[in-house]
């Protein structure tokens, strides 16, 4: 049996009380209004202890060994946790009380396949390949606003609704309205192609009307670049309130480095993206939540090549002007070998769906019964995280 | 059963060229069977490319040159070496594209690409990039109609795979090298062989099997000049990195016999019922639909087991099933299949490697650059995603502008889609306002987007 210590960390003691107050109930449930949600999926399993080192844990330096960060390198959050030096934008957002860090978090998936892990993260079910729709897709089907992925394909998380679409900038010549009308006719008998075309035209119309003036640019799946496009979509159209960004390259099996290397590069890109989102959203930042998630964590210690192998518990971030932040939300399991999951991975103590439920209930204003019946079915024991948002 | 030439050429080939359907119309199934009975052909454009040892040596030399040029602050020399590295890669892409365009054995070409995807090595890793083409030529193409275990062993011992999934640097903690140096075990290759290459994620292995298998595979590396052993750029078993002892995988004990220990494990994995089912499922998904009928998976898995994983025989079984000859709608083509079949159908031969790479990049499938060891997605929902479809239409329009067709577009449609062409699409093409628009509609049509 693993003994767990309760570490609910508060940046400001003053914030403590309000966090545990019962939520006010309103006679009429307010809608999401103009609230925006950006979800960033880090594919390949980000090393949670690399991004958010538990430097104050007595076992940290010993267990991490050559991939431990020095005290002089890190951006401290409190006496236990710190951020990787690349995450300076996130650090200042956190300091401003607009970001929470959720540590030792995992989906209900417990094996170590990327592909099953991402499937569970995106479907919101408790096992892989149990659903062909994603939880954000199911959410979209309960509302009239649209969700957009800054990708070529439509990621699983947005599938399952007519309100989900994808868009990526193009260097190819545009298609005129006459051809579109002919294509609509051509696709009359092919529901899949028909639907895709309709969604693409919708996204492209928004893009054409408001954002892609000037030179078109090539598209790489970097968070920094797709963040810029996501912001434009969210600002351009009141009817787009959800954006999904995907990033690859987090599977750091070898020489992941401490302050240089692939993990650092990925974190820098993520941090640039977060900074850009805050800056470019302007006043809309106050109504925005950005969640950063990955399919699972990585081994606590380095493997034979100064990298980390697939693990379990990891880290998620929640940032935004709407966020009641400055906290590290964790039931910290500890880093001694006997504290670890299967004596190798950070023990997961928070179900990532409780974060998702908290976001969609308190930020996107989805009613609890809708959440339980339509979006996260069969997850009644997973309670939404309370107090993540200011109002 | 009436076999359709259109299905043979489009579902099982690289797409019909004008005139192809006419040639195979009298015996479409026989045309496929014949390809499955012929020794795998090495496409002519690939024959002149170098093998892994030569490529590795040149790459190491170029890297050294670049390092020295950087040290000397010689920008033009740095750029020159980078350009050579890039051009070598372009040559690979160009040759592979030509192989797809000109092949007279399109089913063999499809299988080569299917298996290269099953055993993905991706140029997302810089050190793997120079070798991705050689990997396909050396470890995939010769084996597509033979025993699965032969391909599995060749793939697992190929330098590109050992680099891509990190095994080249995995060291047994109790080996001589492990005792002396700081390096240790790396689970990556062992896990992905079990999960992605053989048993499948639910195939019945656990974390302990992954670790034991990773130990078995320690010492499997490629020869580099610093080893002063073996031939540079070829497989090398380094006993001093190999974890000694007997290891137990899936309940069976494997005594330490050096590299033979790993081969014994791979042979058992290749014949495992979970592997048979996993491979059967992937083939059925690829050639039939995202959710193939259970009875087909069972039949193919049975054939796999009964023939000791003879891939040619499994494919013959597949093309003998009535279900695979059902008309549309078939799977949505991948972007690569779409581009190659479009160029074949329109008889476009003038293009540069850069144009191919950029086209594929826009349509989300850069050559040799799968996003993960699982290869490219197979789902229709991915390849028919909204942005993907719009990009394909935009690209079709750009290609239509350049193509010089020699017959009316509606005749061309009949010529390459045959019986697969619906009256609805035929009319749309016929009513187009220009040849450009007509060809765009042809390439965008459901019949052409699917196979």
List the helices and strands and how they pair.
The complex is a heterodimer of chains A (391) and B (451).
Chain A: E1 7-10, H1 14-20, E2 36-42, H2 48-51, H3 60-64, E3 75-76, E4 82-83, H4 88-95, E5 99-106, H5 114-123, H6 135-140, E6 146-149, E7 164-166, H7 177-186, H8 191-210, H9 223-236, E8 240-247, H10 262-281, E9 288-294, E10 314-319, E11 327-330, E12 350-351, H11 352-362, H12 368-375
Helix pairs in contact in A: 9-10
Chain B: H1 5-11, H2 20-24, H3 28-37, H4 44-47, H5 52-71, H6 75-102, H7 106-118, H8 132-140, H9 148-156, H10 159-164, H11 176-180, H12 188-197, H13 207-216, E1 220-222, E2 235-237, E3 247-249, E4 252-254, H14 259-270, H15 273-287, H16 294-306, H17 311-320, H18 335-346, H19 353-362, H20 380-383, H21 386-402, H22 409-417, H23 423-430, H24 435-444, H25 446-449
Antiparallel strand pairs in B: 1-2, 3-4
Helix pairs in contact in B: 1-3, 3-17, 5-6, 6-18, 6-19, 8-9, 9-14, 12-13, 15-16, 16-17, 18-21, 21-24, 22-23, 23-24
Describe it.
The complex is a heterodimer of chains A (391) and B (451). Chain A is globular and about 65 Å long. Helices cover 31% and strands 15% of the residues of chain A. Chain A has a domain at 7-13 and 31-139 and 242-375. Chain A has helices spanning 14-20, 48-51, 60-64, 88-95, 114-123, 135-140, 177-186, 191-210, 223-236, 262-281, 352-362, 368-375; strands at residues 7-10, 36-42, 75-76, 82-83, 99-106, 146-149, 164-166, 240-247, 288-294, 314-319, 327-330, 350-351. The model of chain A is unreliable at 1-31 and 211-220 (pLDDT under 50). In chain A, strands 1, 2, 5, 6, 7, 8, 9, 10, 11 and 12 form a 10-stranded mixed sheet that branches. The two termini of chain A are 39 Å apart. With 391 residues, chain A is an alpha/beta fold. In chain B, the strands form 2 sheets. In chain B, strands 1-2 form a two-stranded antiparallel sheet. A two-stranded antiparallel sheet of chain B has the order 3-4. Helix content of chain B is 58%, strand content 3%. Chain B is globular and about 75 Å long. Chain B contains 25 helices and 4 strands. Chain B is mainly alpha-helical and 451 residues long. Chain B has 4 domains: 38-162, no CATH class; 165-270, no CATH class; 273-325; 330-449, no CATH class. Chain B starts with a helix and ends with a helix. Chain B has helices at 5-11, 20-24, 28-37, 44-47, 52-71, 75-102, 106-118, 132-140, 148-156, 159-164, 176-180, 188-197, 207-216, 259-270, 273-287, 294-306, 311-320, 335-346, 353-362, 380-383, 386-402, 409-417, 423-430, 435-444, 446-449, and strands spanning 220-222, 235-237, 247-249, 252-254. Chains A and B meet through helix 5, helix 7 and helix 8 of A and helix 12, helix 19, helix 20, helix 21 and helix 23 of B.
């Amino acid at each position: 049996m693993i003994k767990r210590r309760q570490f609910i960390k508060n940046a400001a003691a003053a914030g403590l009380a309000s966090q545990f107050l019962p939520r006010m109930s309103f006679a009429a449930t307010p809608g999401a209004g103009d609230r925006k949600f950006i979800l960033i999926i880090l594919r390949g399993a980000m090393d949670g202890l690399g991004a958010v080192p538990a430097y104050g844990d007595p076992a940290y330096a010993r267990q991490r060994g050559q991939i431990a960060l020095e005290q002089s390198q890190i951006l401290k959050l409190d006496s236990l946790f710190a951020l990787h030096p690349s995450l300076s934008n996130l650090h200042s957002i956190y300091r401003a009380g607009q970001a929470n860090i959720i540590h030792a978090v995992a989906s209900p998936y417990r094996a170590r396949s990327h592909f099953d892990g991402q499937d569970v993260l995106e479907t919101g079910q408790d096992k892989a390949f149990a659903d062909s729709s994603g939880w954000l897709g199911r959410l979209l089907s309960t509302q009239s606003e649209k969700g957009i992925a800054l990708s070529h394909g439509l990621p699983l998380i947005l599938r399952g609704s007519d309100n989900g679409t994808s868009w990526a900038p193009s260097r190819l010549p545009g298609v005129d309205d006459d051809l579109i009308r002919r294509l609509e006719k051509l696709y009359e008998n092919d529901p899949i192609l028909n639907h895709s075309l309709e969604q693409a035209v919708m996204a492209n119309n928004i893009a054409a009307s408001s954002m892609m003036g000037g030179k078109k640019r090539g598209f790489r799946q970097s968070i920094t670049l797709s963040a810029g496009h996501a912001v434009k979509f969210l600002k351009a159209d009141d009817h787009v309130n959800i954006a999904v960004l995907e990033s690859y390259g987090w599977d750091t099996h070898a020489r992941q480095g401490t302050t240089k290397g692939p993990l650092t590069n990925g974190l820098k890109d993520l941090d640039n993206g977060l900074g850009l989102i805050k800056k470019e959203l302007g006043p809309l930042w106050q109504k925005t939540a950005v969640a950063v998630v990955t399919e699972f964590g990585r081994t606590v210690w380095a493997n034979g090549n100064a990298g980390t192998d697939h693990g379990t518990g990891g880290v998620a971030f929640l940032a935004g002007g709407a966020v009641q932040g400055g906290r590290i939300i964790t039931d910290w399991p500890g880093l001694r070998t006997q504290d670890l999951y299967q004596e190798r991975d950070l023990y997961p103590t928070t179900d990532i769906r409780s974060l998702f439920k908290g976001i969609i209930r308190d930020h996107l204003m989805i009613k609890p019964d809708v959440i339980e019946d339509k979006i996260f079915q069969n997850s009644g024991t997973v309670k939404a995280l309370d107090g993540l948002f200011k109002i | 059963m009436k076999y359709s030439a259109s299905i043979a050429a489009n579902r099982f080939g690289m797409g019909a060229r004008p005139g192809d359907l006419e040639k195979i119309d009298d015996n479409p199934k026989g045309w496929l069977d014949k390809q499955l009975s012929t020794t795998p052909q090495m496409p002519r454009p690939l024959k002149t490319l170098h093998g892994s040892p030569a490529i590795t040596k040149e790459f190491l030399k170029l890297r050294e040159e670049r390092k020295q040029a950087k040290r000397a602050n010689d920008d033009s020399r740095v750029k020159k070496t980078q350009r050579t590295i890039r051009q070598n890669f372009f040559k690979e892409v160009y040759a592979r594209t030509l192989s797809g365009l000109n092949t007279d054995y399109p089913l063999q070409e499809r299988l080569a690409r299917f298996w290269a995807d099953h055993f993905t090595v991706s140029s997302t890793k810089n050190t793997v990039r120079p070798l991705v083409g050689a990997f396909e030529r050396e470890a995939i193409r010769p084996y597509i109609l033979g025993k699965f275990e032969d391909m599995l062993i060749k793939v697992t011992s190929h330098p590109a795979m050992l680099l891509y999934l990190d095994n080249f640097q995995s060291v047994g903690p109790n080996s001589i090298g492990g005792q002396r140096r700081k390096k240790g075990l790396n689970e990556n290759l062992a896990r992905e062989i079990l999960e992605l290459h053989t048993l499948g994620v639910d195939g019945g292995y656990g974390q302990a099997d992954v670790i034991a298998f990773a130990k078995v595979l320690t010492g499997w590396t490629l020869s580099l000049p610093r080893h002063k052993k073996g031939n540079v750029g070829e497989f090398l078993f380094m006993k001093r990195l190999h974890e000694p002892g007997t290891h137990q995988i899936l309940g069976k004990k494997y005594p330490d016999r050096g590299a033979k220990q790993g081969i014994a494990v791979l042979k058992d994995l290749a014949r495992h019922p979970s592997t048979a089912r996993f491979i059967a499922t992937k083939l059925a998904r690829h050639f039939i639909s995202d959710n193939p009928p259970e009875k087909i998976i069972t039949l193919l898995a049975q054939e796999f087991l009964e023939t000791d994983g003879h891939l040619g025989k499994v494919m013959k079984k597949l093309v003998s099933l009535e279900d695979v000859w059902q008309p549309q709608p078939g799977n949505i083509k991948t972007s690569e299949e779409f581009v190659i079949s479009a160029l074949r159908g329109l008889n476009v031969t003038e293009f540069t490697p850069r144009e191919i790479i950029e086209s594929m990049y826009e349509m989300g499938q850069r050559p040799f650059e799968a996003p993960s060891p699982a290869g490219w997605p197979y789902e229709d929902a991915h390849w028919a995603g909204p942005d993907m479809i719009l990009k394909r239409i935009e690209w079709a329009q750009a290609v239509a502008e350049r193509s010089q067709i020699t017959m009316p577009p509606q005749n061309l449609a009949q010529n390459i889609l045959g019986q697969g062409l619906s009256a609805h699409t035929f009319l749309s093409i016929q009513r187009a306002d220009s040849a450009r628009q007509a060809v765009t509609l042809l390439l965008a049509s459901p019949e052409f987007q699917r196979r």
